[in-house]
Amino acid sequence: MAGPEAGARTTRDDGPILPPPLRLELRGIRKVYPAVVANDGVDLAVAPGEIHAIVGENGAGKSTLMKVIYGMARPDAGEMLWNGREVRPRTPAEAQRMGVGMVFQHFALFDTLTVAENIALALPGRPKLEPLSRRIAEVAGRYGLPVDPRRRIGSMSVGERQRVEIIRALLQDPGLLIMDEPTSVLTPQAVESLFVTLRRLAADGCSILYISHKLEEVRALCSKATILRAGRVTGVCDPRAETAASMARMMIGADLKALRPAARQAPGAPLLVIDRLSAPSPDPFGTALHEVSLTVRAGEIVGVAGVSGNGQAELMDALSGERTSPPGTIRLDGRDLARMGPRARRRLGLSSAPEDRLGRSAAPDLPLHENALLTARAAQTTAWGFLRRAKIRAAARRIVEEFGVRAGGLDAPAGSLSGGNLQKFVIGREILNAPRALVVTQPTWGVDVGAALTIRQALAELRDRGAAVVVISEELDELMEISDRIAVIAGGRLTPAIPRAQCDRDAIGLAMSGRLDTPAAEQETADAAAH
Amino acid sequence: MPDLLPILVAALVAGTPLVYAALGELVAERAGVINLGVEGMMVVGAVVGFAAMMGGAGWPAAALAAAAAGAALALPFAALAVSLGANQIAAGLALTIFGTSLGSYIGKPYVGMALAPAPSALQQAAGQIPGLGVVLGQLHPLVWLSWAVFGGVWWFLYRARAGLVLRAVGESPASAWAIGHPVGRIRYAAVLFGGAMAGLAGAFVSVVYTALWTEGLIAGRGWIAVALVVFATWRPGRCFAGAYLFGGATIAQLFGQTALAAVPSELMSALPYLATVVVLVVISRDEARLRLHVPASLGKPFSA
Amino acid sequence: MPLRIERRPRPSRAMSWASPLIAAALTAAVAMILFALDGREPVSTLWIFLTTPLADLYGFGELLLKAAPLILIGVGLAIGFRAGVWNIGAEGQLVLGVIFGGWLALEFGGAGPWVMPAMLLAGGIGGALWAAVPALLRTRFNASEILTSLMLNYCAQLWLAYLVFGPWRDPAGFNFPQSAPLHPDALLPIVIENTRANIEIVIAVAAALVAWIFIERTHLGFQLRVTGAAPGAARYAGFPVRRAVWIGMLTGGFAAGVAGVGEIAGPLGQIFPTASAGYGYAAIIVAFLGRLHPAGIVPAGLLLALLAIAGDYAQMMLGMPSSIGGLFQGTLLFFLLAADVLTTWRIRRVEDAPLPATEAA
């Protein structure tokens, strides 16, 4: 058995101890993964009570750095100082004992257990559930994080789950709290109240490492920022004194490119029609769809905004054909597709691309050329049931060339590509199938800025060629950028789609939190629909 | 009524190996590891227990030796399934094939031998208890121990913090690891416990139930135990009851063979296997309910 | 820990073919330890163990005879395994082949040369029908095919026992549980003079060839591979999982059924209750050892056959239990799974010397 403070009880006398010591200091951290140098010579200094942002785009090495601090990854070089003493946490347990708390982007919670049980699991010793519930209530009250300790996690919304994670971290009395992309799952209003909580925490002396790629949020909340690009620190600044553009330059090494303006035409006739679609969820903790209706015309992109877990997965399953629906609920150009499977729908022109690349829109262990075959039309790639391998490779090569996919050849397994390159391959594959309608979820999730731009551009061009495009995403900014109209999904219900120009972030935020029944919001959506 | 007593006792005895083996597998599966090597571990446990008795050991030593053998056999499986992240189905099959061969290899000298019946002192003492003594006196102490194991597993899973941690590991090893629990060590412990219980179950068959060793003695009981865990939807109480249900079915089948001479004995012998299939079908039909109870990470390797 | 395993950037092709060899070497090492524990000189005993069976043409024929069912069933199972369908019931499906083919042979034994091919077909159908039960239960009721197919092994075994102990028992057989000898029309032709190797090995190799083309070169084979490698991707692409289950189960069952006929119409020449020598289980090892690829399954079947025969010889010549062959088969699969880990992971040294103060803690 390792000592309870094996990682923490490490002292060295050679460092000059100057008051006040930094809460956390990293010097020259390097972490190499088989295919990539994730962190290279990273320095970081966090003072007590400071809200410090780690900024960088996807793949810049933010997550790796957090894993190093939290004992989930061991650095290949460099040192880490905690309150002036050198430490080397080897497991999350050691990091926790040191005083590091973490709130995960993909929560580390157990659906089948209650809030109190979840929290008890993370605390040392054998906390009794009754007194623990009181402590939960106390912390919840102090920081404005209302939760019911007896509720099961599986029945909670994403925002509530995040509160549980924060409370759990706080009950461990952390000296440093790591927040990994905390706002990606929240409505704009919930973001505001999260910031209030975090400021209160910092005032109590807890340092906060705030990982984000949303520069406006960082400017609003943080007093210091360390910017990463390709595993290296490219800048340390006071975000309040910077502009989003100047920070973006440090982040991507160039000016942010905007989407090329589209050759706008008026949208055409209704193409993809969803008509009062209701569907139960196969997941015991999922969200059923209630009378979802949406009409997408030829030549327009409709965005579906919403906090994750509000029926997006179920809607995607229904549209892609992975689950069939009651007759008449899904029509393409007047033709009923609701009872058809994915292949029949694709043949008739309705394609889809879910965000889950490893194991759904691509088979990670199969080579790229076979992944091109996954959704290819049988007529072009097979003869009498036999594969026409030259044709298949040609199709794969075309995807790779037209969409700038960087891969180690067509025989490379799909899983060996970076997130951005694989997503370009998947979206490219679907677009080259020339669909009349395309449904995508989170098209730029976990994708670097360059690939994201390529993908958004490709979607816009598909729209300009007269296709109907549906983008289901949790990133409101992305939807505001590429959609012609936006609808909101909450609790398995869909609001009417409103033209982008009339979209108001606050109203969308309210709709995302499911407060459709408040008269004001209803009035607003009704007004918007009437325009 | 007195005529029912031998049947009851026989059913309890026939169900006991399943109690051990299924509870052991249940614990392993609640930690997220499916071990299809139960049959192989039971075979080896049966041989080791039997050999220990033949070597002059008492039943407690024989049971202990069998449990140790089962755990020892589970160790390479755990190394494959937990440390190396190998396919758990394939690794479990390998364990069953290996264990079955190892059992017949070790058991070669003992084929056809039988143990002299010798009711233990404990058992005779229990027979003196007024009332319950009538039943208890006819049951081997290993049957009582299986009740204690059931109580212990139930208490562990639902009342002990360690059990809560184990269930958490089975639901989401990544989350459990992130909040500081040693997922690998917990899974190892669960698999080894499953192995020890399978070994004990095997020894119960060869030492108490049949009191002899032949090849093919275990005859699929290990697989039935795996099926029982599904049947029980991963809950120990149902597992316990299910084991006796099967024990009862086995005994009914034996009595049926004598009572219904017109029915081929092979058909009667096939009943426990057919019953297992039927029970699996009935329980698996309700996919949603199965999904609600199955440990979410079952069969999925985890590496930090 | 100074060593750490980490994922390779991409699976190593070389390792995927090297790991069976590594596993074989490790198994040989275990065998030598076992021989040494038994008080024998390890190297020469292993040499005798492995080479005695192949000392002459007859021995080579025996190898082909044993390898044929292993290859045939292994190829059938591999198609299922590639599709993520876990058919563990080949043993029972083989027995059904014995029952169906045996019935035909007993009823129409001397009716003409058509009997033998008809038996093979009937046996295949019998095996496929037996495999259809778990397939139906899985696709219709979501019941695990692993457990149902396995339970049916015991049922098939008992059915055959009932027949041979009862209606099919040879009246002239001194009350032994065995059928009358099959008519020569019902026997498989020998392909190598002066051995017992029959046409089944040709069928097995042909089946491997067909399976190779099917799985690698047809769209249906591609669909099965996707279903096994990434079930979510198969659902997304619209490749029905149910069809994969049916194809996977039925091919395995058919192959096992044909192999069952191969036993009674080959070396046995009559029907015994123990018609199968555990081929249904050993073929699982063959399938894995052959990388679930028909081209690998042929040599894997030969190797496993060698181990089985060597086990028999060990009993005769070395006085060791014949189950030692099975023991090595199981060990081989263990080591193979362990070595396979090295195709997707690699072992690397890491600098992780603990800090001085940590040691004191």
* Secondary-structure element string of chain B: HHHHHHHHHHHHHH
Please give the oligomerization state of what you see: heterotrimer
Please provide the count of β strands of chain C: 2
Identify the CATH class of chain C. Answer: Mainly Alpha
Number of strands of chain B: 0
Average pLDDT metric of chain C: 88
- Helical content of chain C (DSSP H or I, runs of 4+): over 70%
Distance between the termini of chain B: 59 Å
Q: In total, how many domains does the architecture of chain B comprise?
A: 1
CATH fold label of chain C = ABC transporter involved in vitamin B12 uptake, BtuC
- Sheet-strand content of chain C, in percent, reads under 5%
Main β-sheet of chain B, in a few words?
Answer: none
State the name of the first-level CATH class of chain B.
Mainly Alpha
Structural class per helix/strand content of chain C?
mainly alpha
What percentage of the residues of chain B does DSSP assign to strands (E)?
Answer: under 5%
**What is the global morphology of chain C?**
globular
Q: What's the helix-strand series of chain C? A: EHHHHHHHHHHHHHEH
GO molecular function, one term (chain A): ATP binding
Domain ABC transporter (chain A): 24-255, 271-516
Region (Disordered) (chain A): 1-20
InterPro entries (chain A): AAA+_ATPase (IPR003593), ABC_carbohydrate_import_ATPase (IPR050107), ABC_transporter-like_ATP-bd (IPR003439), ABC_transporter-like_CS (IPR017871), P-loop_NTPase (IPR027417)
